[in-house]
């Protein structure tokens, strides 16, 4: 059961949608009326009391004067933004006051890397993706394999729809993990949220997680109250997240007020973990040793569904719409926000000349076991789905399961000195 | 609001764009700030329990409650002022300020926060006190004969903010570029010993960069979390640059931590010459800015208005690199410095250690005394300390020379 646009309205807390002249909340993302880039623009009279005075001040400078110098830049935002587009969008803001400059600041401050294509823009709230469509749609299209503004995204969190996945060879697959993010509707996102909002998200999260039972029963560790012993244990479990140091995150304002209202929750079994108020409101992770992705994914779906239910009981759902799926801070995580992966031993296959091509065709990506931007150690790779948007959760995990199964088969062949050409997959 | 150019008195800077901003502010509010008001004070109030900075010592829920709904005409809010202090709890031994101004009006709109901080930081300076500006180098007595066997180099620096623009924590690219443009024009008009060249950070060649590093002129993108949290590194290196004269004795940083940082320096101990160049250069620059209806931010209570409250008043740090290997190990070294109203740093700048007994000695005060007074303290104080050093070299006592509290 997914939200339609009327549900977007009813689930939003109304107090902050204070007086508009029309008395109606007319600023939401609606997949049906995607043509509207409606914001309550101050029409220059006292009738509309809200505006963004800082943004207004900047308007006295021409677009040329304000336009960022992107000559050294290589990120999605820099590829898409033009002076004309800047001029069109610079006077707008979302209802919470997030502006174009806020969206792009991280991309202006971080020119990028010649080989890694960063996104270079973030959302400050749910409405960002609507108000600044003309910038974000092409960025999304570029980043998510041609996803069009009219495309619909399918959500499927029914683990029964996953075929197999319980028999990946544990001699090769060392561990299995699925993660995603969730944003709580009614609050601004990490680049823009206030302390009050962040604490409210934490409070709701702690309540929702505290109501989990059985296999999911666990405990919350607030970053700011953590004891030395707790901290050490969380580090040993590889659960602890630290204050962001990446300039990409710092430049977008996500480390403000650290460590206020940030924390880690995990179940007693240490197989289900939630990060609160890091790069997204929630990051949800299901993991365990070995290769039973079915179990990991089942726990993931069950846990997520339960958490979502608990939030809804409190009048807060997750940000979602039928075009973008789950709405998250970084456009790269839209759709499912899902990265499902394994740590797998592929010492022979990783040296095979067509390794990269195979991954590409399977719609998978490799990373080192330290995470994004690390190198592989001892022939062990982190293999995960490359896509986020335009495929459902089940579809992505299925691709991962089928793909890893094939990779292991190929590895075994190469171990025995046998050929693997006949196993080369077609492009998925 | 007419623009009247009435000469070199810094009080005669005028307000035309300030008025513009006020006018447009009637129609709009900072809607993000309005949005946050739906949360109670308790919900928004920062957790300062681990904090040790001036802001954390002063801020209370009451003050927060009182000021949170306000904003300056450019939209700068209380949360904007204090963000750097919230994000940087401080150090048990170093007392940081923990707040910044986003524009000239910040000091007025958020007086209830800034006044106690200013008082704390600037030796009890009261909200009713008046600050005296004196950039007449002829009022400095002596200062041309510090012993170059001990005094290796002399330097005076200050900052200036350009009226009509917001400050580095919040300024836009358009504003920053306008400040740069005005600065280049002002600096290029300088002649004689001031004739020089501007090096924008973003167009610098490798060769120019190496030379500026070798000259110890180059400033880099801020890495200090204090500055980053206050938003001063946004859009780096756009509209940032370094200007210096051909003689390499007068240097201006554009759009780093303040709109302008102005530095006069040379080897040896002739502080009189350094200070003269400083005053003359500053005056010439100010004249050009005033011609464009953008003088320096100044008022008779706070003196020169800068981004960090610690730099209000003169914004001046006048100092020398001086060899004091014996005096620095004397039991009363710290006490002597305190009484002379001086402070010591390592030769790498703030927070560095001294190397080889060579110290950076400079005035401790910024607000409540004039430029001439502060440089006089440095000149007189360093002269005394060099004499003390010489005595200690000869194995003699310096007890009779210990100064009274200035």
Keywords:
heterodimer; A: 428 residues; alpha+beta; Transferase Creatine Kinase, Chain A, domain 1; Creatine Kinase, Chain A, domain 2; disordered N terminus; B: 406 residues; eight-stranded antiparallel beta sheet; two-stranded antiparallel sheet; 35% helix; ATP-binding (chain A); creatine kinase (chain A); ATP binding (chain A)
Give the SSE map:
The complex is a heterodimer of chains A (428) and B (406).
Chain A (H helix, E strand, L loop, with lengths): L4 H6 L42 H6 L4 H4 L9 H5 L2 H7 L10 H10 L18 H4 L1 H11 L29 E10 L12 H16 L7 E5 L5 H9 L10 H5 L11 E5 L4 E5 L5 E8 L3 H21 L6 E2 L3 E2 L12 E7 L9 H8 L1 E4 L12 E6 L7 H23 L13
Antiparallel strand pairs in A: 1-5, 1-8, 2-3, 3-4, 4-5, 6-7, 8-10, 9-10
Helix pairs in contact in A: 9-12
Chain B lengths: L15 H12 L3 H6 L4 H4 L9 H5 L2 H7 L10 H10 L18 H4 L1 H11 L29 E10 L12 H16 L7 E5 L5 H9 L10 H5 L11 E5 L4 E5 L5 E8 L3 H21 L6 E2 L3 E2 L12 E7 L9 H8 L1 E4 L12 E6 L7 H23 L13
Antiparallel strand pairs in B: 1-5, 1-8, 2-3, 3-4, 4-5, 6-7, 8-10, 9-10
Helix pairs in contact in B: 9-12
Write a structural description.
The complex is a heterodimer of chains A (428) and B (406). Helix content of chain A is 32%, strand content 13%. Chain A has 14 helices and ten strands. Chain A folds into two domains: 53-144, Transferase Creatine Kinase, Chain A, domain 1; 159-423, Glutamine synthetase/guanido kinase, catalytic domain (Creatine Kinase, Chain A, domain 2, 2-Layer Sandwich), CATH 3.30.590. In chain A, helix 9 (195-210) packs across helix 12 (293-313). In chain A, the strands form two sheets. An eight-stranded antiparallel sheet of chain A has the order 2-3-4-5-1-8-10-9. Chain A has a two-stranded antiparallel sheet with strand order 6-7. The longest helix of chain B is centred in the last third of the chain and has 23 residues, at 371-393. By secondary structure, chain B is α+β, with helices and mostly antiparallel strands. Residues 1-28 of chain B have low confidence and may be disordered. Chain B folds into two domains: 31-122, Orthogonal Bundle (Transferase Creatine Kinase, Chain A, domain 1); 137-394, Creatine Kinase, Chain A, domain 2 (2-Layer Sandwich). In chain B, 35% of the residues lie in helices and 13% in strands. At the A-B interface, helix 2, helix 6 and helix 9 of A face helix 1, helix 2, helix 6 and helix 9 of B. Chain B: It is an enzyme of class 2 (transferase). Chain B: Residues 150-392 form the Phosphagen kinase C-terminal domain. Chain B: Its EC number is 2.7.3.2.
């Amino acid at each position: 059961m997914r939200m339609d646009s009327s549900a977007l309205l009813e689930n939003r807390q109304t107090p902050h949608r204070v007086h508009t002249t029309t008395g109606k909340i007319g600023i939401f993302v609606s997949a049906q009326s995607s043509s509207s880039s409606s914001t309550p623009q101050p029409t220059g009279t006292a009738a509309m009391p809200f505006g963004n005075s800082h943004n207004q001040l900047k308007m006295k400078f021409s677009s040329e004067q304000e336009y960022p110098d992107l000559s050294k830049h290589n990120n999605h935002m820099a590829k898409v933004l033009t002076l004309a587009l800047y001029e069109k969008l610079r006077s707008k803001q979302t209802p919470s006051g997030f502006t174009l400059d806020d969206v792009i600041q991280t991309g202006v401050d971080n020119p990028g890397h010649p080989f890694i294509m960063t996104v270079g823009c973030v959302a400050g709230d749910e409405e960002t993706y609507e108000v600044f469509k003309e910038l974000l749609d092409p960025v999304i299209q570029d980043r998510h394999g041609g996803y069009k503004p009219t495309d619909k995204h399918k959500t499927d969190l029914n683990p029964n729809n996953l075929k197999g996945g319980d028999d990946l060879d544990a001699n090769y697959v060392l561990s299995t993990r699925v993660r995603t993010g969730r944003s709580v509707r009614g609050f601004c996102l990490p680049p823009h949220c206030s302390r009050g909002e962040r604490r409210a998200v934490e409070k709701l999260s702690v309540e929702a997680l505290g109501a989990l039972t059985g296999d999911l029963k666990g405990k919350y560790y607030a970053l700011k109250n953590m004891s030395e012993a707790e901290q050490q244990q969380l580090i040993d479990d590889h659960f602890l997240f630290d204050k962001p140091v990446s300039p990409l995150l710092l430049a977008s304002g996500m480390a403000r007020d650290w460590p206020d209202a940030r924390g880690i929750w995990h179940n007693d079994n240490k197989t289900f973990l939630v990060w609160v108020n890091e790069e997204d409101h929630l990051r949800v992770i299901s993991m365990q040793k070995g290769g039973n992705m079915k179990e990991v994914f089942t726990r993931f779906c069950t846990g997520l569904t339960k958490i979502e239910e608990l939030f809804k009981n409190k009048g807060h759902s997750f940000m979602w719409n039928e075009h973008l799926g789950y709405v998250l801070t970084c456009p790269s995580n839209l759709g499912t926000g899902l990265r499902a992966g394994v740590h797998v031993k592929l010492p022979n296959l990783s040296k095979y000349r067509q390794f990269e091509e195979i991954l590409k065709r399977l719609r998978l990506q490799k990373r080192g076991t330290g995470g994004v931007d690390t190198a592989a150690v001892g022939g062990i790779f982190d293999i995960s789905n490359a896509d986020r948007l335009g495929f459902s959760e089940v579809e992505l995990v299925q691709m991962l399961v089928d793909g890893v199964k094939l990779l292991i088969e190929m590895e075994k062949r190469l171990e025995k000195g046998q050929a693997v050409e006949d196993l080369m997959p077609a492009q998925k | 609001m007419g623009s009247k150019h009435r000469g070199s008195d810094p009080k005669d800077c005028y307000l035309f764009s300030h008025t513009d901003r006020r006018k447009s502010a009637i129609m709009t509010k900072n809607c993000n700030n309005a949005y946050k008001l739906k949360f109670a004070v308790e919900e928004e109030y920062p957790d300062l329990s681990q904090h040790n900075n001036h802001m954390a010592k002063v801020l209370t829920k009451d003050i927060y409650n009182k000021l949170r709904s306000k904003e300056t005409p450019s939209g700068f809010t209380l949360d904007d002022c204090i963000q750097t202090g919230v994000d940087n709890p401080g150090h048990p031994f170093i007392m940081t300020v923990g707040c910044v101004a986003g524009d000239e009006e910040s000091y007025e709109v958020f007086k209830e926060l800034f006044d106690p901080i200013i008082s704390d930081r600037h030796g009890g300076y009261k909200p009713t006190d008046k600050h005296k500006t004196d950039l007449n180098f002829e009022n400095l007595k002596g200062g041309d004969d510090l012993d170059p066997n001990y005094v290796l180099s002399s330097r005076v620096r200050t900052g200036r903010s350009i009226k009509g623009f917001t400050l580095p924590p919040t300024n836009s690219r358009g504003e920053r570029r306008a400040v740069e443009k005005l600065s280049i024009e002002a600096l290029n008009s300088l002649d004689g010993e001031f004739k020089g060249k501007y090096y924008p950070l973003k167009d610098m060649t490798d060769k120019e960069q190496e030379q500026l590093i070798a000259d110890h002129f180059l400033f880099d993108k801020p890495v200090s979390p204090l500055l980053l949290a206050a938003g001063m590194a946004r859009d780096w290196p756009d509209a940032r640059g370094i200007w210096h004269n051909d003689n390499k004795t007068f240097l201006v940083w554009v759009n780093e931590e303040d709109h302008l940082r102005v530095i006069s320096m040379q080897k040896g101990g002739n502080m009189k010459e350094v200070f003269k160049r400083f005053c003359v250069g500053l005056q010439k620059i100010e004249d050009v800015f005033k011609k464009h209806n953008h003088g320096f931010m100044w008022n008779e209570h706070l003196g020169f208005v800068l981004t960090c409250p610690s730099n209000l008043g003169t914004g001046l740090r006048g100092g020398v690199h001086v060899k004091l290997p014996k005096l620095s190990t004397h039991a009363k070294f710290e006490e002597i410095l305190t009484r002379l109203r001086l402070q010591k740093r390592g030769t790498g700048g703030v927070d560095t250690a001294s190397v080889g007994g060579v110290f950076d000695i400079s005035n401790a005060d910024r607000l409540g005394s004039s430029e001439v007074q502060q440089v006089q303290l440095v000149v007189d104080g360093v002269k005394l300390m060099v004499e003390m050093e010489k005595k200690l070299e000869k194995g003699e006592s310096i007890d009779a020379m210990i100064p009274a509290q200035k």
